[in-house]
Design a protein that fits this description.
192 residues; mainly alpha; 9 helices
């Protein structure tokens, strides 16, 4: 490199600084306690004596908890199990599996979980709880919200609240893209 005077002599300041930094780094690696005197010494671990092995095993062994967040109890697995129980018609099992998932307001699949829970509650004859649950399915979850509206209408019919049921069924019957459009029209006996 050329210095400010135009000669090609090395920059001794830069080389000296690099040499000093290298020396400090090597000193730190060799003896970190010089820089951090309060740092605890690294313990040297000993082999556990055989006579203590059984006692330590008995003290510390516990079967792996499947409800831990790393194993079979994680949200994805619980949700998959709930879906399998739903498919099998085991609504009591679905409600049990979905409960911890729905306790978490940030659960990613919450709209579908609410729909499954609501339809199971309806299947078990718990219409009020079904309506309350199904009403929580957000409109942003478009198709799931439409399904929830359908089941809310059915729950109102089960409660003999025909006016509320008819109101929802009319909304469905006026939405040709709704999955239950034809069924709602038939139920209302509407002909256009």
């Amino acid at each position: 490199p050329v210095n400010s005077e135009g000669s090609s002599q090395p920059r001794w300041g830069l080389i000296g600084g690099l040499a000093l930094a290298t020396a400090l780094l090597l000193l730190f690696i060799a003896s970190p306690n010089l820089f951090f005197p309060d740092a605890p010494d690294t313990p040297s671990f000993q082999t556990i004596p055989k006579e203590q092995s059984i006692a330590l095993y008995q003290t510390h062994f516990k079967r792996y908890d499947l409800n831990s967040t790393l194993g079979g109890g994680d949200a994805d697995t619980l949700f998959q199990n709930a879906q399998a129980a739903y498919t099998a018609g085991n609504c009591a099992g679905v409600l049990e599996l979905l409960a911890p998932l729905l306790d978490n307001a940030n659960f990613e699949r919450r709209p579908l979980a609410l729909l499954l829970q609501g339809t199971c509650l309806l299947d078990l004859g718990k219409t009020l709880a079904a309506i309350e649950t199904l009403q929580q399915v957000p409109p942003a979850a478009a198709r799931l919200h439409e399904e929830a509206q359908w089941y809310i209408a059915l729950a109102y019919l089960a409660q003999l609240q025909n006016e509320k049921a008819s109101e929802i069924l009319k909304q469905i019957a006026e939405a040709p893209r709704h999955r239950h459009y034809l069924e709602a029209r038939e139920m209302l006996k509407m002909v256009y």
